Amino acid sequence: MPNVALVGTQWGDEGKGKIVDWLAERFDIVARYQGGNNAGHTVIYGDTKHVLHLVPSGILRPDKICVIGNGVVVDPEALFEEIDALEARGITTRDRLWVSERAHLILPYHHGIELGSEARRGDDRIGTTSRGIGPCYQDKMARSGIRAIDCADRGVLSRMIVANLNVVNDLLHHLYGRGPFDPEQMIETYVAYGQRLRPYLADTSLLLNRAMDAGRSVLFEGAQGTHLDIDHSTYPFVTSSSATAGGVCSGLGIGPSRVDGVIGVTKAYTTRVGAGPMPTELDDEVGEQLRRVGQEFGATTGRPRRCGWFDGVAARYAARVNGLAALAVTKLDVLDGIDPLRLCVGYEIDGVHVKEMPSTLPNGAIRPLYEDLPGWSRPIAEVRRWEDLPPEVHRYLERLAEISHCPVGMVSNGADREAIMLPPDGPLERLLP
Ligand code: IMP
Ligand code: MG
């Protein structure tokens, strides 16, 4: 059975949650491989809106197994809040949700370090989600992180927390002028978390590989997006994990030969939260309309998202670094009534035309080069058959695919679970189980 990865091609918030929820029906297991509760995946069905941060969106389908891999950073408080909210709605997690023993944990001092460091950066701040993600990954790389498995043993955990606070309390005090953390209290809290985590913990690499050996199919769920990846994006305005397809293997403990294809989720336009370059950002009425109609406010922080035209340079780059087999284009209906529609086909930087994403983007000094296409005059959210989409929509999607060097495999044209269409004989027909 094929295993497929799903990644964001933009700056996150592409609508991955909805696509995963829809795709999950075809797979046995959904596995997250990076990021943490900085993510916010919104899935709407019936009159219920589910916002998930850590737990894979597959959890909303009762017969699916969900995995939080070793590459994810887990804030136990946030995880249990999410589990409680799911259980309160009758969605069970026991024996369905597995957390890697090797996943690193977010501790309260990670928040403290992030707040201090962002404040100190001043105008150069990254605009993080303040969830402690960056400092947790820093600790992981510095080899001072605390993993889920470490909470199982009070002695081990105590030594680690005391050793870390020895350094961290000094850092917080001298560098950021923030108060110290009490090791005793933190040890008690994390021992308790460890107890509650125990039934969820597993060697998830073993679990996944055994399942795949037995012919079960896995959907690898990415968070954030290509242009927030620690290596492949607008550094330093990025998140601290490998959000591109490459992260699947290290973040889950599986070999590359297990990944049969990668789907890139992209909005029909572009959004970004937080600081950093965004070449197609609009500071006008169209940008305002995209934000209002698309309800472009962060699912995690509530911040208004920056909005702009579809960026074909960014999409082509995402197709390359992820080896995309198909695009899933979301929120197409948000473009209803906008005429003309513009697609960015290149950038002009210092008078030079650029077609490939440069390794650094000057903030502000980029002129996007656009191609205009006609908009469509009737609303499309109710359309359920590919051939019933207006010809202008087909034209827009064709051009978007050409510019991105990747075929469109799926579109979402409304918030509803049913508002998803696949083109006949499209690339996903061959890829999906
Ligand atoms: P961090 O991941 O909290 O460290 O934030 C780093 C950057 O990534 C900031 O610009 C955030 O706004 C952005 N970011 C992190 N997670 C998401 C997400 O799930 N969607 C959109 N942007 C995100
Ligand atoms: Mg989001």
How would you describe this structure to a colleague?
- The protein is 32% helix and 19% strand.
- It has 433 residues and is α/β, with parallel strands linked by helices.
- The protein has two domains: 4-90 and 204-431, Adenylosuccinate Synthetase, subunit A, domain 3 (Adenylosuccinate Synthetase, Chain A, domain 3); 104-199, Adenylosuccinate Synthetase, subunit A, domain 2, CATH 1.10.300.
- The strands form five sheets. A ten-stranded mixed beta sheet has the order 9-7-5-2-10-1-11-15-19-20, with helices on both faces.
- α3 (108-121) packs across α4 (133-142), α3 runs parallel beside α5 (154-176) and α5 crosses α6 (183-197).
- The mean pLDDT is 95.
- Magnesium ion binds at residues 12-13, 39-40, 299.
- Magnesium ion (MG) binds at residues 12-13, 39-40, 299.
Describe the SSE topology.
Layout lengths: L3 E5 L7 H9 L4 E4 L8 E5 L2 E5 L12 E4 L4 E2 L1 H13 L8 E4 L3 E2 L2 H14 L11 H10 L11 H23 L6 H15 L3 E2 L1 H10 L4 E4 L25 H6 L8 E7 L2 E3 L12 H9 L12 E3 L1 E2 H11 L3 E5 L10 E9 L2 E3 L11 E8 L17 H14 L3 E5 L7 E2 L5 H5 L2
Parallel strand pairs: 1-10, 1-11, 2-5, 2-10, 5-7, 6-8, 7-9, 11-15, 14-16, 15-19
Antiparallel strand pairs: 3-4, 12-13, 16-17, 16-18, 19-20
Helix pairs in contact: 3-4, 3-5, 5-6
The site of inosinic acid has 21 residues, from helix 4.
What's the gist of this structure?
The chain has 433 residues and is α/β, with parallel strands linked by helices. It contains 12 helices and 20 strands. Helices cover 32% and strands 19% of the residues.
